[in-house]
């Protein structure tokens, strides 16, 4: 599993949010429903805010229930863009993310299986053996949207040294 540690300046994520059930395998129907609920106006506004890497839609999960690692409960999920700008509309939500250290896990493979496998390996293998712990903040992922079954993805976790 590849990982790189990066320092990132503060940024915002602007998009749509919904409280969804925690699900470790397969596609989450509630997240699909959230994506399908994005209006043309919301989509246009988010595209105008597209000024920071990865310059595409990201998924951010935060406010996890305490039963997360039992595969139970809910989390808040946001679909949006990473931006240095502020949210200009009431149609979207804004999540401010402070500057900090991030563990970035790139991967390439079939979606969603590869991305879900990497999530599992991060918590089962990498975190226990690394010099880092997860800190407060959103867990961010994105997958390049191409027409192939094999897709490039990244997972970003806010971390600090143990």
Automatic annotation (TrEMBL):
<dbReference type="InterPro" id="IPR029442">
    <property type="entry name" value="GyrI-like"/>
</dbReference>
<feature type="domain" description="AraC effector-binding">
    <location>
        <begin position="1"/>
        <end position="160"/>
    </location>
</feature>
<dbReference type="InterPro" id="IPR053182">
    <property type="entry name" value="YobU-like_regulator"/>
</dbReference>
<dbReference type="Pfam" id="PF06445">
    <property type="entry name" value="GyrI-like"/>
</dbReference>
<dbReference type="InterPro" id="IPR011256">
    <property type="entry name" value="Reg_factor_effector_dom_sf"/>
</dbReference>
<dbReference type="InterPro" id="IPR010499">
    <property type="entry name" value="AraC_E-bd"/>
</dbReference>
<protein>
    <submittedName>
        <fullName>GyrI-like domain-containing protein</fullName>
    </submittedName>
</protein>
